[in-house]
Amino acid sequence: MSSAKPKPVAGDNLPLFTPNQRLELEGFSRKARPNGSSSTLAELLRMVEEAQVDDEMPSTPSSHVVQMTSVASSSISAPAAYPFVLSFKNLTYSVNIPRKLSFSSLLGHKKSGNGAGSPGLAGTKVLLNDISGEAREGEIMAVLGASGSGKSTLIDALADRISKESLGGAITLNGEILESRLLKVISAYVMQDDLLFPMLTVEETLMFSAEFRLPRSLSRSRKKARVQALIDQLGLRNAAGTVIGDEGHRGVSGGERRRVSIGIDIIHDPIILFLDEPTSGLDSTSAFMVVKVLQRIAQSGSIVVMSIHQPSYRIMSLLDRLIFLSHGNTVFNGSPANLPKFFAEFGHPIPENENRTEFALDLIRELEETPGGTKSMVEFNKSWEAKQQSLSLQNRNVTWTGPKPSLKDAISASVSRGKLVSGGSSGDSSQVVSVPTFANPSWMEMLVISKRSLINSRRMPELFGIRFGAVMVTGIILATMFRHLDNSPKGVQERLGFFAFAMSTTFYTCAEAIPVFLQERYIFMRETAYNAYRRSSYVLAHAIISLPSLVILSLAFAATTFWPVGLAGGFSGFMFFFYAVLAAFWAGSSFVTFLSGVVSHVMLGFTIVVAILAYFLLFSGFFISRDRIPPYWIWFHYLSLVKYPYESVLQNEFDDPAKCFVRGVQMFDNTPLSVVPEALKLKLLKNMGGTLGMNLTGSTCVTTGVDILQTQGITDINKWNCLWITIAWGFFFRVLFYFTLLYGSKNKRS
Amino acid sequence: MSSAKPKPVAGDNLPLFTPNQRLELEGFSRKARPNGSSSTLAELLRMVEEAQVDDEMPSTPSSHVVQMTSVASSSISAPAAYPFVLSFKNLTYSVNIPRKLSFSSLLGHKKSGNGAGSPGLAGTKVLLNDISGEAREGEIMAVLGASGSGKSTLIDALADRISKESLGGAITLNGEILESRLLKVISAYVMQDDLLFPMLTVEETLMFSAEFRLPRSLSRSRKKARVQALIDQLGLRNAAGTVIGDEGHRGVSGGERRRVSIGIDIIHDPIILFLDEPTSGLDSTSAFMVVKVLQRIAQSGSIVVMSIHQPSYRIMSLLDRLIFLSHGNTVFNGSPANLPKFFAEFGHPIPENENRTEFALDLIRELEETPGGTKSMVEFNKSWEAKQQSLSLQNRNVTWTGPKPSLKDAISASVSRGKLVSGGSSGDSSQVVSVPTFANPSWMEMLVISKRSLINSRRMPELFGIRFGAVMVTGIILATMFRHLDNSPKGVQERLGFFAFAMSTTFYTCAEAIPVFLQERYIFMRETAYNAYRRSSYVLAHAIISLPSLVILSLAFAATTFWPVGLAGGFSGFMFFFYAVLAAFWAGSSFVTFLSGVVSHVMLGFTIVVAILAYFLLFSGFFISRDRIPPYWIWFHYLSLVKYPYESVLQNEFDDPAKCFVRGVQMFDNTPLSVVPEALKLKLLKNMGGTLGMNLTGSTCVTTGVDILQTQGITDINKWNCLWITIAWGFFFRVLFYFTLLYGSKNKRS
């Protein structure tokens, strides 16, 4: 095919490689080919690190490799270029169909094409039925089929994303059973969706991936070199400085974004790479570029296994092995070149000019709709495969004449050739490949997560801007609405209203962060799936980063309202008010963060937050004071997040025993006697004093702040304890958030 | 191609047509071929209707057509089978680029492939540059190109979706300039998205389209027959009874859904059909079925013009004319058969086995990235087209030897052959084609819209269920929280709180309807784009349908809270409370409906509703009574939607002058004297009575409800007026909603 097109194939906007770069890259991956090693991965990595003489010297990727190789080869004993072969035999996987589905089919609802397996078996559905095959180093194996044929399931099975108990059959690498832990180290899985931070550049995105995934033992300059090499390998040189972008921000093209997604997952240069429909949603040229990059990755010594919906003619020329699935069964397994022969022998020759995969998929689809289904094709393929195997057995092992090395040796050899830049930072040499639980210590993870978060928010100032605006608008409305409240009975009631509204507002404005949290959650799930960092580091970093913005919001709100409304306590009163608002913001944002870990839909999350906060307000003690709340609801009063900051600011306002709120005749203000002339009121007061045996004049204080607190039932917890409890709620929800992340991000099918 | 595949090509699940059906359909469209008419469309339609002898008799589509033809032909004078030809010459269209884009390119941001035209021209971007071509009856013309090449723009230009002022060049039908009004009657435009009600069946969906678009003069059985014929034509016979479906409900397949979308727009059997990427998002077989249906539509006497991203080999065999665009320029214009010759002469022969369109699009893409761009190809195509034209001129008009009829006659003839089932219900015979503003009278539209809405909500009971649940939960919480409020000063304060919370709740729960409204809005926009009904009918029907559910919600809420809380007024008090809640629901839902017409994003809409309602509550008079609100905010108090229902229920509660809320010694309840012994309180009371010159005992009423209303500043509007004002707000927002629909749904580019 490529011979038919002498023009250089261009990337999204640029030639993929200059001839010079291509040479360097080939050197990077090939030079060490004939050498191998029996050293452990950890040992190798340490040696590689020690060989790095000058950390500060800017160096090209190829020079790194030369150094790596020269050191590694000095300790090499066994030959190692035996190619990796991933084999899978008789893979079988079925799931129970939930009752709901069978019920809807009882109602006569039409079954769409993606029902798979034998419908006779009540309750179970066979997703994979006796699938065998193999994928080899240097090659791309593609799984094809209609949606629902089992493509993704097969990829998941191979990538160890289906629990071993449910999956029948065997998966081996070089004839040895693949352990889950080992596979996790030497492989990568690229999901269909591009989950990237929109405001990071391509280079930054890959660099963060390197910082998360590559071991601490690797120096920063070495990581940088790896990222630069990867950028060239992915053909992203011209886009390296461009941000990823989203609807609101112009960024890289769809094909470039997909290649960045792949780059993130192959930062450690895995031996096996799985991809679920890497070309979906891309135009033909971008899709071709992606598969071209995959070919280059395969040729650098990897096994590439991918599913693809409908490869174009040009992409077909890059694929080495094809498996066509239909309802979980193999209907073809072989090289693209064998397709015409296969279909001719099957009795459906491919017409001269037609696209082969298109023809094959259409034929399979048509057979699926016949009463017999694709059974005839499945059977034919079995016999055809057997025939092919007996033919190829004679040519086998032509490429490899020496004794077959163990998997351990093969992996070590591969590492010495520059593969698997990741690996254990622990020096445990008793394990061949020490499985790295995490590449970095906790504090480093937090630092990197925080750094990334800061870059993100600095480049999207509008997110904080909107929140700040909302808080300021509410602050100004409250400040003008409750301007200069007096110390009268009415003023007291209005003060209570102000505090209830102000404390609720802080919670409500936190809800605006839900979309951001939800967007991040998917990235978090992808990153923790391959142990990029500890969940605890993420939770801590998330909490720490949120603090500065909360301080600014609290300060702005407190300063806007405290003096205009005329709250009590002077500067120390203001400081406490500020602390209380900050604590409310902290508790509210922790609560919303926790909710965003539980609820996955923005609208649902927002509705729940608003509803819960409305109930919190109802039970806070503002609408009904604590001593009047029915006993069966009092538990909710203590659960109400609004109660604690509300009570703390009320106490801050009213706890001055010297301050008077109802003085002399003001005590008649909210009674029918308020219309009585002033002189008569004074007379009344004097009479009352006489009855009570005390001197009541127009300036006698009748109600102090403490009396008001008593009336409102705010007597159980003092103001500082209220503050601490509010802060503790915040921590409590952060801990809950941690647990939702821990148990909510399983990514294996059962 | 089809000869290479002898097997019958199957639809999504069924053979498209039985041989018998095929014959009937061909009769439907072809039988009357050689006849024509010079009568007006309106006249013809009337005759056709009169000829309908037996409305009740179930009849096949073909029998209808025979009747139609026999009658129509009696008044026919001129011959008419002259084929329609849609020609467009030198179409040119450019837009101004907003400054922001050029700014970002200044910053060195990479330009992605969809920048079109000459970048030298500062500020303008040429989307179409001198495009010419023609599309003929019976054929499919396809526009191809990368995204951003101008495909959709060209379709929009031809479909009169770009204002005449901005578009350069000429579009003619049979050589006569096409008027917008005429084009709207004889054409249809199918959008890329399937905007369908998920819970209607295929048959119902098409039937509603028939009821909206086909003239009232056509009997219901005739409309049914049209729908049945269409179901067969679209190959949807087996899916006719299946609901469309969505994420939550199992429905028809993607290909079937797309065909339903097409069916909705061609219910009136248009002469010209425009489609924007009708195959996008479909798998190859479904895409093929869709284009196969389009071919059948073309062959029934229509011109089909569509854009397509990357047609498969099989689809290519169905296309009659291709236009390849690159950055708004034509790079190829001709039949698919000419592609190899064209590219061979251009110097880039298509390799033997390669997909032709794939090759062409890849080559165009590669040229686009060279410095010269596709200029050479554009130039080559110009000369090549000229050559082809001179060649074909000799063969021209071979198919038509008689005198060319006028466009008017041609359309009349087409109508007599069964085309354009739509048309004017007005009998104005002075116009050749009376443009029907609307097919049905207003009451009929409202009836049909209401019917559809009722079917929808009956099939999605969960939507109402969630709202009902939310209202009931809040009702029960309020009922238990504020259980048996007493008539004491504290009880009064709690009553105020209850009413404020209750009235806010009704508004908040209305916000839950936003997603439903937003979903419907897109369908509304599509339907009003082709004048399916008046916007006013939609607004009225929407309001009327919402009423029953609001009555149920109000009744449930009022009944749950009125007696447990112990509100005043007995049965008539309850009835007024119910009215007030209903009025609040009505105003709230009108407000939310209006907002959903302004805001297009669910999350944004919800945030705005919550924020505005919070401010409404703040200014309602509950937090600060009217007489204490600062004068610069009093306007907002009167704007507050919560004020009116809140004041009305407060008056309903407190307007009984015989009812007492503070009696005797209770007047000391909220004062420091509350701790004084009862006997001393009585003594105080007696003393005070003496001072005031009245008899004050332990049972004397000190504060009546009227006093409380006075204290709360609720003196300006009586309770019934508050109720009417609330209802009036509801109507006001419905009117605003109407205007947003009127001005918000322009669908022409400028």
Could you characterize what this model shows?
- 2 copies of one chain form a homodimer.
- Chain A has 27 helices and 12 strands.
- Chain A has helices at residues 19-30, 41-51, 61-74, 99-106, 151-158, 180-186, 202-213, 220-233, 254-265, 284-299, 313-316, 339-346, 356-369, 375-393, 407-416, 442-459, 461-481, 489-510, 514-529, 535-565, 570-598, 602-618, 634-639, 643-654, 678-692, 705-711, 719-744; strands at 85-96, 124-136, 140-144, 168-173, 176-177, 187-190, 272-275, 303-307, 321-326, 329-334, 660-663, 701-704.
- A 6-stranded mixed β-sheet of chain A has the order 6-7-8-3-9-10, sandwiched between helices. A 4-stranded antiparallel β-sheet of chain A has the order 2-1-4-5, with helices on one face.
- The first copy, chain A, is elongated.
- The two termini of chain A are 43 Å apart.
- Chains A and B meet through helix 10, helix 13, helix 17, helix 18 and helix 22 of A and helix 10, helix 13, helix 17, helix 18 and helix 22 of B.
